[in-house]
Each structure stands twice: as structure tokens, then as C-alpha cells.
Write a structure and sequence with these properties.
- Helix content is 40%, strand content 14%.
- By secondary structure, it is α+β, with helices and mostly antiparallel strands.
- It has one domain: Multidrug-efflux Transporter Regulator, Chain: A, Domain 2 (Orthogonal Bundle), CATH 1.10.1660.
- The strands form 2 sheets. Strands 1-2 form a two-stranded antiparallel ribbon. The chain has a two-stranded antiparallel ribbon with strand order 3-4.
- Helix 2 packs antiparallel against helix 3.
- The longest helix has 17 residues.
- 9% of the residues are buried.
Amino acid sequence: MVGLTKGRLRYWARTDFFKPSFVEEDGRLPYSRFYSFKDVVALRTLEMLRVQNGISLPHLRQVADRLARLKDELWTSTTLFMLNKKVIFVNPEFGNP
């Protein structure tokens, strides 16, 4: 659904790049990680930025952090732009870049 392998999802969770909303204590069990709809949208966005736009992993970490802090009501009003391999957020909370 998001274009990521299970291995990449595990790696991103293990390195604190992107953790699912819910994780069982024993993360090695089948179906021990559950992703919310917001998680799925964020993961798809991060993967598209990584693959299609060549965004570096350190910058993607900043983007992931900002997406995680974004309030639910701002998800639909936020626009992402690319400028010189950097992601620019524009929404009512942050204002213009």
C-alpha cells in the first residue's frame, strides 16, 4: 500500500525514523505493528519523497518529525513543496515558508 518493504518498515521503526502508532511488546511476533491511516499517508509521502525526489535520509528524518507533530485537523490543509531537494511545509499553523 505504501510502497515499502517489510524490511524497510522494520528498519525505520528500529532506528526511530518512523514508528507505527501501536506496537506489541514483542515486536517480532506476526501482526505486532499497527499503522494508523495517518501513519500510512505519512509513510507513503516519505517514500515518494525518498524515491521520486531523491531527498536525503537526514532531511527525511526532519520531515517525518514535522509530519508526526502536525495536528490532525491540519493534515488536509497542508501543502508540501520541493525546493532545492528540501521539503517546504505550507499550512495555517506554520504560515508561508
